[in-house]
Write a structure and sequence with these properties.
The protein is of the alpha/beta class and about 400 residues long. Among the domains are: about 30 residues, no CATH class; about 200 residues, Rossmann fold (3-Layer(aba) Sandwich), CATH 3.40.50. Helix content is about 35%, strand content about 15%. The strands form three sheets. A six-stranded mixed beta sheet has the order 4-5-13-10-11-12, sandwiched between helices. Strands 8-7-6-9 form a four-stranded parallel beta sheet, sandwiched between helices. A three-stranded antiparallel beta sheet has the order 2-1-3, with no helix packed on it. The longest helix has 15 residues.
Length: about 400
């Protein structure tokens, strides 16, 4: 394995974090042909340790049940929207309820291999829950710098498994460079591993996320025509693109999918860069999306490159569209996701109208997290039901209630 800059191909020592010192590009691992050949015989089953030949770590990756999440063919929504071959990759089935578990499992192995006493990250919620759980599994301490105002359910997950959580006002507002410097300073003082799940800060952790593409290709089989993802920092989309490139290199798939990113118009750094034809993604001031999982001020250039290299696109949706689709998905498909996960579904009608996807294509929507992560759907209705006078133990009384 070699660690190279994705821009200038400058090689650095394994374990180097941050950006390329030569050009500021994002570092990434490259694997030899022998390692890539392992993808020709993927074994089914949970856990990402079975892909370790394609990981930047030699230490065993801890297992809590991550991976092998369902790929579900849509029964009603797809046909209703004009996409009879629509699939859902439901990452809410991971142990802490989000795709970040794949990243956290690898981050924990990296921390153990580095001899760290604990793990440090900044998080809007899902990363905190995932890293806290996997740190506990590995016997490591965990420190979370949390953006204030995030859903209580995500905070409870991190605290329940023993993480130290410190709210930090505007932890993301100063931009990735300042945040990386802060994390590095604190991590060095504590001998903690800087496990911020964002490739421009830590270039290795998204390698755990790329296993999503391995699983999709094994289940379909082959690559979909288009992959539609909610995007905050951009690691989930970029990681999958890397995975598909590796699968094609191994001869497992013949064609590559188009990677389509979806952001809220209230938190649109990647959307603005794509529409402007920019070379880099600039931060936005004060993102105000109600979709907590993608309410971030900056997206990495690696996501912009993945969209363009795959001949994909970036779509913008209103928060209310995602919230409405979250409710519709639950009623019509029986799948309860967090609001950010519904963003790809909300974007489908516009993508069809623009010709970015086509009715006869195999399209996979990524559901990044489970509904309990941000549990406002049906909240008022459930509370009202809990306060009702119970019906009598009588068939007629029950039927009158109906």
């Amino acid at each position: 394995m070699h660690i190279l800059c994705s821009n200038c191909a400058n090689e650095v020592l394994p374990g180097t974090v941050g950006r390329c010192e030569m050009c500021g590009g994002i570092l990434r691992p490259y694997y030899p042909d022998e390692a890539v050949s392992h993808l020709t015989h993927i074994h089914p089953g949970p856990g990402i340790d079975r892909f370790r030949a394609m990981m930047p770590v030699s230490t065993a990756i801890p297992f809590l049940g991550e991976g092998d999440t369902p790929l579900i063919r849509s029964r009603r929504l797809g046909p209703a929207l004009g996409l009879p071959r629509l699939y859902f990759k439901y990452e809410g089935r991971n142990p802490t309820g989000a795709f970040k578990d794949r990243a956290a499992a690898l981050a924990t192995a990296l921390a153990v291999e580095a001899g760290a006493e604990g793990i440090l990250t900044a998080s809007s919620g899902n990363s905190a829950a995932a890293l806290a759980a996997y740190s506990a599994a590995a016997g490591l301490k965990c420190l979370i710098l949390l953006e204030p105002g995030n859903p209580p359910g995500k905070l409870r997950q991190a605290v329940a498994v023993g993480a130290k959580v410190i709210p930090v006002q505007g932890v993301f507002d100063r931009g990735p460079k300042a945040l990386a410097a802060l994390l590095t300073e604190v991590a060095d003082q504590l001998n903690y591993y800087p496990a911020f799940i964002y490739a421009p800060v830590n270039p290795y952790i998204l390698e755990g996320i790329k296993t999503i593409s391995y699983e999709i290709a094994a289940r379909l089989p082959g690559a979909p025509d288009a992959v539609v993802c909610p995007v905050g920092g951009g690691d989930m989309l970029t990681a999958q693109w890397r995975g598909y490139l590796e699968l094609k290199r191994a001869g497992v798939i013949e064609a590559l999918p188009r990677m389509i990113a979806v952001q809220s118009v209230s938190a649109p750094p990647l959307l603005e860069a794509f529409r402007a034809g920019a070379d880099h993604v600039s931060p936005v001031a004060s993102p105000r999306s109600k979709l907590s999982g993608i309410n971030v001020p900056f997206t990495g250039d690696h996501a912009l490159a993945a969209v363009r290299d795959s001949e994909g696109s970036v779509a913008g949706i209103q928060d209310e569209e995602a919230l409405a689709m979250q409710a519709r998905l639950a009623r019509e498909e029986g799948i309860w996701v967090e609001p950010a996960s519904a963003a790809p579904l909300a974007a489908l009608p516009g993508l069809l109208a623009q010709g970015a996807i086509h009715p006869d294509e195999r399209v996979v929507c990524l559901f990044s997290g489970a509904g309990f992560k941000d549990a406002h759907l049906a909240e008022a209705e459930a509370a009202e039901i809990g306060q009702r006078e119970p019906a009598a133990f009588d068939a007629e009384a029950i039927l009158r209630r109906i």
